[in-house]
């Protein structure tokens, strides 16, 4: 392998790709040579992201919770890219911070639909082509909530934990046919959202950093570069793993 981390010739569809970690992954995948198709509900954010990444990027405005339209999304992405989707990044999600006793069934289901049901629908839509070509990579964005208990996020933790089960089951089902399946579990990443969440709350910031062995927050590109590795030939013998990108949070005390 002359270029084990190259994604030249690959086409990646990234849900939630217009902002945050999704944008970080898209940016890094494109830098490694892939065409990237960004998916999200906000066309304005998608257009900004496309412009930021450049010629390697395109976008499709789409709501992944419209489960019956998953095949339509794959077809639209392939038309935009001019090539089959060979990398699927299931990154779209919503958050809900609420006491368990106050979480309604409707709220719980909404979180599961966005994270889990939408991911399953897209997997089912993209797999036939990957299996026919005997080549593909499916990546899920898991969470620290997949690995240990975090209070007040019952629905989110259930959804992210379900993704880990999907990774393991799917990997055992399709890896022998050339399709690898993995996940990244990000730790606390520096972002506008996190800075807003921590503004005026130094105790919470200190608590997070105090349990992070590296003593700092991560960046979106840290997750993006991990995505490049897991989707590249360098990881050709890696499947069914959940890779923490967390500065050591998951093994710290």
Might you state the CATH topology name? Rossmann fold
Sum up the overall morphology in one term: globular
Biggest β-sheet: strands ordered side by side in the sheet = 3-2-1-4-5-6-7
Q: Class by helix and strand content?
A: alpha/beta
Tell me the helix content.
Answer: 40-55%
Number of domains: 1
Just name the CATH architecture: 3-Layer(aba) Sandwich
**Uncertain parts:** none
Output the helix-strand order: EHEHEHEHEHEHHHE
Query: What is the CATH class designation?
Result: Alpha Beta
- Radius of gyration computed on alpha carbons: 17 Å
Strand and helix map with partners:
Elements: E1 11-15, H1 20-31, E2 35-40, H2 43-53, E3 57-61, H3 70-81, E4 87-90, H4 105-133, E5 136-141, H5 154-174, E6 179-186, H6 192-198, H7 202-210, H8 220-231, E7 242-245
Parallel strand pairs: 1-2, 1-4, 2-3, 4-5, 5-6, 6-7
Could you explain how this protein is built, in words?
With 253 residues, the chain is α/β, with parallel strands linked by helices. It has one domain: NAD(P)-binding Rossmann-like Domain (Rossmann fold). The protein has helices at 20-31, 43-53, 70-81, 105-133, 154-174, 192-198, 202-210, 220-231; strands at residues 11-15, 35-40, 57-61, 87-90, 136-141, 179-186, 242-245. Strands 3-2-1-4-5-6-7 form a seven-stranded parallel β-sheet, with helices on both faces. Helix 2 links the parallel strand 2 and strand 3 (57-61). Helix 4 (105-133) runs parallel beside helix 5 (154-174). The longest helix is centred in the middle third of the chain and has 29 residues, at 105-133. The termini are far apart. The relative contact order is 0.15. The mean pLDDT is 96.
